[in-house]
């Protein structure tokens, strides 16, 4: 078993789409744990052999850096290197979508007065190929839309490098979020396609790692860390092909992935929401057989690329009522039609409030994730106030329906997503785990 590690210097930033930019030096380190399967240790040139925590298979582990971006919000970034010679970019890790894309030089020219963007120049890479349209690249998110071209080039994630035929989007126009782009970790059938479709499918980074035997499963483990760590200092981790036992406590509870009926997404069945207020348990909401337009159970979809969490309107209304009954006026009241102003004053003492999210299947498999109220109070992207992370999800009786769980809740859990077995495992996050304990997942 070989542990291969490399550290590459980066700049740790406080990011802003419009506003102040502060720099401080830092480093990101990447590890690959490898076993040839024959008991023979192999070392890549220039990399050192170290004791490994496991000899079961191959994984790629990368650290994640949480950053707050003014006017956009909080995101978790991974460093990747694109092209030859390499161009270093920081990409948002997004379990809520599949396409991987970077900003191109055309986009950066339009943002010439904004130094927050890192852009990829295919003309400076000896291994790049621009794919003529059609199809052109398109990506659509609730508050952002992007257009551009497809490119093929080398991508290095840690010490693992994918070949020059790795396809990804290169954004030329759109409403940007700072840094270099995005890594999509969703189902491989959900790449964005033209004309608001999901029909243009091609191997994503997870698939390519598996296809090239860098990892032994189409699975990953995700740890985001939580908001008790100072902003822009939190470190998470993403493990391709395995998971890190040091980042959770208690058992990993397994569910079949539950998706909305329109397109496959990474979700689990949400059974109930409750709270503990001043040490008193308070029931808030239960699913009670609620289904979407096609009769399927309504999942909570885990979306690490969004800081907000959408919950049922009745659940949010009751939670606001209970919290305001204890701390008068801390949250704005729900308005008719499910409208809600999420802004709130910062600095409230909320140590005695917990919100509990329970996931359960028909097989009586269940786990409850306890989220401190402080985790749901986020710095507002636009100014000095704060923002309540829970938002109302209105139900449209004619469309598929799901609850979007962003990083404000996901950072209190550890997720293991396995597309080979169509399962998701959930555990309670462990913020005190210092030493990694990697467990590869093997399906061949």
TrEMBL record:
GO terms for biological process: proteolysis. This is Peptidase A1 domain-containing protein. The keyword Protein transport does not apply. Belongs to the peptidase A1 family. InterPro entries: Aspartic_peptidase_A1, Aspartic_peptidase_AS, PEPTIDASE_A1, Peptidase_aspartic_dom_sf. One of its GO terms (molecular function) is aspartic-type endopeptidase activity. It comes from Cladophialophora chaetospira. It holds the Pfam family Asp. Keywords: Aspartyl protease, Hydrolase, Protease. Residues 76-427 form the Peptidase A1 domain.
